[in-house]
Amino acid sequence: WNWPSPSLFALFANETQADAKNPARPKSEQIESKFIVTFVNGIYHNEHDWLRVTEQLDEMFGQEVRSFYNPSTGSFFADLAGALYDLLCRSDSHLVAKALATHLRTAIRDSGPKGRVLHLAHSGGALVTYLAAKYHLKASERSRIDVITFGGAHSITRKFFDGHTVNYYARNDPLVNVDRRAAKLMKGASNETFDQVIYAKYETPFVFMEGKTKSPLIDHSLEGPTYKEALE
């Protein structure tokens, strides 16, 4: 797992384990705390695609990833139109965002009193995550969720998730130009292959990567070599 700073994934897990072991309490009374990984897919993924990506993530993390299905209409253009509507309207009545909030809330509960959730969001899933955070999750819940986005239709900052938050974008990803914040920050990135830029307002890292295949669609895919490099 390649983070912008060394081994943060291991750090999260170690912090969770340390917090769970409270020496002031008898061992028999200690409540187990876990580190849970969740995932939400982007647009135009049928359930077979979603399950395939989930299985790949299970293998990468060495544990069951709690995957949430962001449903597709079966049409790329209909999905895209729906995502654009959500992006422009940012509705507080978005049913998928409400369901994702419930999914994350359950993961927080199951992680135990000191546990944490690492949430992965790809493409349109990042927009749904943003809507869930803004309208449906409490600050106390968001504070226990760390977020990583890949080619997000809406970047995520520490305004809503004040733990560890990182946004990855391939330089040739079409969605880097959809998110105005990411597009502006990429202009200030100096390294063509891999560069981290901090969004100063909310102290949030954005990582810009060279597209491995030079194909915008393949490099946007979570199964493509660009974002797989970030995951492995």
How would you portray this structure in words?
By secondary structure, the protein is an alpha/beta fold. Helix content is 41%, strand content 17%. The longest helix has 16 residues, at 95-110. The N and C termini lie close together (5 Å).
Strand content: 15-25%
Mean pLDDT score: 86
- The structure class reads alpha/beta
What's the order of the H and E elements? HEHEHHEHHEEHEEHH
Q: Would you count the extended β strands for me?
A: 7
Oligomer state equals single chain
Uncertain parts: 1-8, 16-29
Q: Rounded to an integer, what's the Rg over CA atoms?
A: 17 Å
**Total helical elements:** 9
What is the rounded distance between the termini? Answer: 5 Å
Shape: globular
Helix content: 40-55%
Q: Summarize the main sheet.
A: 7 strands, mixed
How are the strands of the biggest sheet laid out side by side?
2-1-3-4-5-7-6
Secondary structure: elements and pairs:
Blueprint: H1 8-20, E1 35-40, H2 47-61, E2 66-68, H3 76-89, H4 95-110, E3 116-122, H5 124-135, H6 139-142, E4 145-150, E5 165-170, H7 180-187, E6 194-199, E7 204-209, H8 216-220, H9 225-231
Helix pairs in contact: 4-5
Structural descriptors:
single chain; 41% helix; 232 residues
Offer a quick outline of the entry.
The protein has 232 residues and is α/β, with parallel strands linked by helices. It contains 9 helices and 7 strands, in the order H-E-H-E-H-H-E-H-H-E-E-H-E-E-H-H. It has a 7-stranded mixed beta sheet, with helices on both faces.
